[in-house]
Amino acid sequence: MKLLILGATGPTGRHVVDLALRSGDAVTVLVRNPATLGDLAGRVTTVTGDATSQHDVSAAMAGRDAVISALGRGRSLAAKGLFTRSSAAVIAAARETGVSRLVWLSSFGVGHTLRWSSLTQQLMYRTLLRSIYANKEIADESIRTSGLDWTLVYPTRLTNGPAKGSYQADDRLPMRGNPTISRADVADFMLRAAHSSEWIGRTAVISD
Fold first, then answer.
1. Structural domain total, the chain
2. Is 28 exposed, middle or buried, given 0-12, 13-18 or 19+ CB atoms closer than 10 A?
3. Which one of 65, 114, 163, 172 has the fewest CB atoms closer than 10 angstroms to its CB?
């Protein structure tokens, strides 16, 4: 499969790239600074640009079979419009290029998934993560109504631990306390979803 991966140099995106390369996929990445690719240089097709620019995303998306977005704000608690602007660029580029398959990383507790969260989770989502989650909610709704073959992925709290391969994935999962999932397992799910029609038009909640 020919994949465009957004957020490829981030902690989750890098796992997606590594897994995709190991599975034999042809990987294109859109990055602002190719120097950040490190040992990926030469192993992926690199397009220099910004994920919030329709022009740049279209250039990277043309000829691909699917798009996987693992964009994030790192340790920042301020959204700065990243998710709304990048989702708008991706949707417009998808329509321009005819690439309809999109797997998009969100966060558990965004939008309607908040009502399934535990009290511990809700406290964090409504305080520390309020700005980012509000921006993600708008972006997610735009994707749902885009007409694309989308999958929205809602992981619980991300960790940098190793993949377990035994995570749970469903449209809804019961929550207690503050459950976690490794970025490696999230990447595994996202790549599998891109290769399958099972999760098209669905919200995937994933957790250990």
1. 1
2. buried
3. 172
Q: Which pTM was predicted? A: 0.94
| Residue 78, pLDDT score | 67
The alpha helices in 67-182, defined as continuous H runs, are: 82-97, 119-125, 130-144
| pLDDT value of position 76 | 67
Q: Using CA atoms, how far apart are residues 87 and 164, in angstroms rounded to an integer?
A: 30
CA dihedral 168, 161, 5, 42 (to 10 degrees): -140
Question: Which CATH number fits the domain that encloses residue 36?
Answer: 3.40.50.720
CB 37 within 8 A of CB 46: yes
Asked if 165 and 188 count as a contact pair (C-beta separation under 8 A), the reply is yes
Q: Please tell me the predicted confidence (pLDDT) of residue 65.
A: 98
In which domain, by residue range, is 171 found? 2-207
Stretches where the chain sits below pLDDT 50 are none
